[in-house]
Amino acid sequence: VDRRLGGQHPVPGPVQHTAHERPHRGFILGDQLTREISSLDGLDPAQDVVLMVEVGEEATYVPHHKQKIAFLFSAMRHFAEELKNRGIKVRYIELDDPDNTGNFNGEIARAISELKTERLVITEPSEYRVLSLVRDWQKSLNIKIDPPLKDPRKK
Hints:
By secondary structure, the chain is of the alpha/beta class. It has helices at residues 56-60, 66-85, 104-115, 128-140; strands spanning 25-27, 49-53, 89-93, 119-122, 144-146. The protein is built from four helices and five strands, in the order ββααβαβαβ. Strands 3-2-1-4-5 form a five-stranded parallel beta sheet, sandwiched between helices. It is globular.
C-alpha cells in the first residue's frame, strides 16, 4: 500500500515480461489523471514507462479558454510528477518541446520509435474522436493496443 500520496492505494504489482516481450508502455490522456487508471495496472517500475503528451491539436480542435488549457496542462504535469515520486518512469512531452509533433499520432509514433515498443496499454478514451485515433494505431503505427478497443458502432 502506498501511503505517500495521502491515501491507501495499492501499488500495482510488476508484470512478468517474457524474454521476447518488450516492456509495457502505458498511455494516459489529460482526462484520465487518476492513480486507479487501468493503464497503470501491472506496471513494472523497473522497466515500464508511462507516456503523457501535451499536443497543440488537442488544445485547438475546438475553441477553449486559455485558462482551461493552462489548467489542464498543469494538472497533467502535476500528475506526471506524482507518478515519478512513486518511482514510475514517465515520458512527458510538453507543448513547447522543440520535437513535439503537435498531435497524438506523431507523438505515439515517436515514442514507438525511440522506446522500441510493440505494445501500448491504454484505458479506453472517453471521447469518440480520440478513441477512433487510438483504434487506428494498430494498423497505421503497427502497434498492439492493450486491451483491444472495440468500435462501439459494431456489435
